[in-house]
Amino acid sequence: MLDKPDREFNLVIDRMALEAEIDALALEHEGHADALRQAVVSLLKLVLKDGREKVCQWFQEDRLGTACAQRLSWLEDEIIRATYAYVTRYVYTSHNPSASERMAIVAVGGYGRGTLAPGSDIDLLFLLPAKQTAWGESVTEAILYVLWDLGQKVGHATRSIDECLRLARTDMTIRTTILEARPILGDMALAQVLATRFDKELVQSTAAEFVAAKLAERDDRVVKAGNSRYRVEPNVKEGKGGLRDLNTLYWIAKYVYRVHDSAALVEAGLFTRREYRQFVLAEDFLWATRCAIHFLTRRPDDRLTFDLQREIASFLGYADRGGLRGVERFMKHYFLVAKDVGDLTAIVCAALEERQAKPKAMLDRFIAPFRRSQRQALTGTKDFVIETGRLNVANDEVFAHDPVNLIRLFHLADLHSLAFHPDAMRLVTRSLKLVNAGLRENKEANRLFLEILTSRNAPETVLRRMNETGVLGRFIPDFGKVVAMMQFNMYHRYTVDEHLLRSVGELADIDRGDGADEHPLSNEIMPTIQNRTALYVATFLHDIAKGRPEDHSIAGARIAKKLGPRFGLSPAQTDTVSWLIEQHLVMSMTAQSRDLSDRKTIETFAGAVQTLERLKLLLILTVADIRAVGPGVWNGWKGQLLRSLFWETELVLAGGHSNADRRASVRLSQEELRAGMTDWTGEEIEAYIAKHYAPYWLRVDLPRRLRHARFVRSVLERGESLGTEVDTDAFRGVTELTILAPDHPRLLSIITGACAASGANIVDAQINTTTDGLALDTIFVSREFPRDEDELRRAGRIAKAMEQALQGTIRLPDAVAKRSAISVKPRHKAFQVAPDVVVDNEWSNRHTVVEVSGLDRPGLLYDLTTALSQLNLNIASAHIATFGEKAVDVFYVTDLTGAKIISSERQDSIRSSLLEAFRPEGK
């Protein structure tokens, strides 16, 4: 039975007094069973409500998570005891109970551990004797109805001991619930028989089976919740490094070591006292977080979403301090705890392997493990050995004797593809004070580290183990500053340190030639680069200055200047690393938010890059960076934009892109069309070619030019001036919608409004005006369905909405507002993005470039394009990029005469009108 919590809970519930009140109600309503039942339910509802409020009050005072969960469990125990007393005294009374008229009510699941979150289900086992009477079933049913009337979610089972054991043999979930069974009341002898037989008949002979099932179950759960403990919206219960991981550790340890509480794991030799304290503190923090979520949301939600993180941080007392906001300090604490849970998991798994209860691990699943017997010497060193297939220290003085061994350990693991022995990891964490200035400046230590970083084996895996033990953050203090640092936005899905390690992993994949179908150009040019080492170092350091008041790219470049010589890089390599870090966002931003058919865009970017080698390095770094942001961030569309920018810039760096080259390119593009339109007459082809201005021939590829020609002819042959066409592009992950319509300033606004009303997310827009006053626009929207037939049906609905909007048969403002109301994302409310509008005449030779950034929302692009049309501006091209909650939309515009916007007053008017789109009160 659970011990009474640390506070005098009888301030809330006095068991004797409560049962006396029920007895008094029975006298008052004697002979009126329904009235008595209603009175008892009302009384228990009040007791439960008052008890929860008191628990919440205490929790706000002491913020003790485990204690809060135990208090709620104890409160529930008392409610069940009172319900049982009412049912057995006044509903199904048995004055002379037979041997069959007895039961034990047993808490199972989380409730069986003596902990409950405010929104947890109540899991109960009604344990009955083998020979049963109607009494047991009746009492069980009556108790459940009272609990349901109290508004509780109850999971229950009614079984005999034999039934429990029979089901537990084949169902691992039932076996786990019995492992955690805790009798609350009733026949304690019955519960004890179950516990004794369960241990003797199942636990003693099935440890390996149970461990394998629980670890497989954990793997499946972690994949579903997001396969990283560093996701910025973690699931506190089910996510990697969450409460369920701690539960799994305890289940396994309890089953294998046959202990009855977690403290006994120290005596069993599984944990040291420090590690057990780590277990207790992690559990308390995770329980505090989970209880806070439930109390604040008033629902059983275990996901720590952006819109909750500020509230939870404040609820748990995290204030702004040391340059970090309270929410950032709280989330950093969360990720450090998740890391601790990972460390404990590794300790338990390694211990189980030694007991032969779990298959042996390997350093990296892509590399065959190093097969060894129990303990063997490692060639070339006396300080390290191989023990049970893992790298271990030869003795406890290895690091004290030579601190460089703290780096050499990881180097050898990478070199021989060996997993780490837990004894070695424990000694590393106890030896962190040896990672001092002397070791940081040691040439051999830095040489070994650089070889780890640039390894062709598993650099990400080894660097992550260095990070988890604390060595990496101490060896490179600037990296230590970003360990567990959360970026409070919806774009980055991982902490800064995890993002950097994943970036190295993505680079290593490209280096191995993996993923060529997703980023073919990167894989093609990787073997041709001359400075592979600089690329790895830049990738590892590119975000190392995050969280500082200055631009992290500039600050990171300065850090690289300091670290390069220490790592043993040459001055030229250090300069390359520093330049890559300072410019690591430029290629992505240019590709996604500039007109790549505009000559000035390419020339400006080429001027920044200067050499073909830098262009190659920057492309590969950009791909690795984007792919490491999180699942779904990289797509074929971004890849195509980067490739287009690379090819155009490569041409400029090779001396191309003169005016003569552009004229020749236009002629070549027209000749390609002539060659492809074999079913057209010469007059038809020349008439069509005359419809397009020079920029069209430079920006549109041949397959699309051929489709456009046939599409335009089919629309005009019908005697119409309005038509739409749809096509899919699975590789780039986009769907194309092509529109032919009479040109006018509000055209793009109407098109974006139709997309917004249809729930389509625009990623880019190519706008072309013909010489006869028509617009031939192609809108690219994010693909929603994997099957082409489904996506084409969706695209058809969007195209139909465009036609209706252009014909004026639907009222766009109402349609967009309706869609926005159902598409709004509550998480966006957690963020504040200051809107900004930049009007620039230097970024393009022919257009004024208007860059708008601010908090994204449904219908924003429609509002922005509407504002531009109301300002009588022609939009020549639009480039839409979204980075989590932040939208960055860029428009190339002219006035109605085709001239740039020179007047400062007119530019101010543009800024004012566009900023108004971000103010709801201004709409």
TrEMBL record:
<feature type="domain" description="ACT">
    <location>
        <begin position="849"/>
        <end position="923"/>
    </location>
</feature>
<comment type="similarity">
    <text>Belongs to the GlnD family.</text>
</comment>
<protein>
    <recommendedName>
        <fullName>Bifunctional uridylyltransferase/uridylyl-removing enzyme</fullName>
        <ecNumber>2.7.7.59</ecNumber>
        <ecNumber>3.1.4.-</ecNumber>
    </recommendedName>
</protein>
<dbReference type="Pfam" id="PF24931">
    <property type="entry name" value="ACT_ACR9_3rd"/>
</dbReference>
<dbReference type="InterPro" id="IPR006674">
    <property type="entry name" value="HD_domain"/>
</dbReference>
<keyword id="KW-0548">Nucleotidyltransferase</keyword>
<dbReference type="Pfam" id="PF08335">
    <property type="entry name" value="GlnD_UR_UTase"/>
</dbReference>
<keyword id="KW-0511">Multifunctional enzyme</keyword>
<dbReference type="InterPro" id="IPR010043">
    <property type="entry name" value="UTase/UR"/>
</dbReference>
<feature type="domain" description="ACT">
    <location>
        <begin position="736"/>
        <end position="818"/>
    </location>
</feature>
<keyword id="KW-0677">Repeat</keyword>
<dbReference type="InterPro" id="IPR003607">
    <property type="entry name" value="HD/PDEase_dom"/>
</dbReference>
<dbReference type="InterPro" id="IPR043519">
    <property type="entry name" value="NT_sf"/>
</dbReference>
<dbReference type="InterPro" id="IPR013546">
    <property type="entry name" value="PII_UdlTrfase/GS_AdlTrfase"/>
</dbReference>
<dbReference type="GO" id="GO:0016779">
    <property type="term" value="F:nucleotidyltransferase activity"/>
</dbReference>
<keyword id="KW-0460">Magnesium</keyword>
<feature type="domain" description="HD">
    <location>
        <begin position="496"/>
        <end position="618"/>
    </location>
</feature>
<dbReference type="Pfam" id="PF01909">
    <property type="entry name" value="NTP_transf_2"/>
</dbReference>
<dbReference type="Pfam" id="PF01966">
    <property type="entry name" value="HD"/>
</dbReference>
<comment type="function">
    <text>Modifies, by uridylylation and deuridylylation, the PII regulatory proteins (GlnB and homologs), in response to the nitrogen status of the cell that GlnD senses through the glutamine level. Under low glutamine levels, catalyzes the conversion of the PII proteins and UTP to PII-UMP and PPi, while under higher glutamine levels, GlnD hydrolyzes PII-UMP to PII and UMP (deuridylylation). Thus, controls uridylylation state and activity of the PII proteins, and plays an important role in the regulation of nitrogen metabolism.</text>
</comment>
<dbReference type="InterPro" id="IPR045865">
    <property type="entry name" value="ACT-like_dom_sf"/>
</dbReference>
<keyword id="KW-0378">Hydrolase</keyword>
<feature type="region of interest" description="Uridylyltransferase">
    <location>
        <begin position="1"/>
        <end position="377"/>
    </location>
</feature>
<dbReference type="InterPro" id="IPR002912">
    <property type="entry name" value="ACT_dom"/>
</dbReference>
<dbReference type="InterPro" id="IPR002934">
    <property type="entry name" value="Polymerase_NTP_transf_dom"/>
</dbReference>
<keyword id="KW-0808">Transferase</keyword>
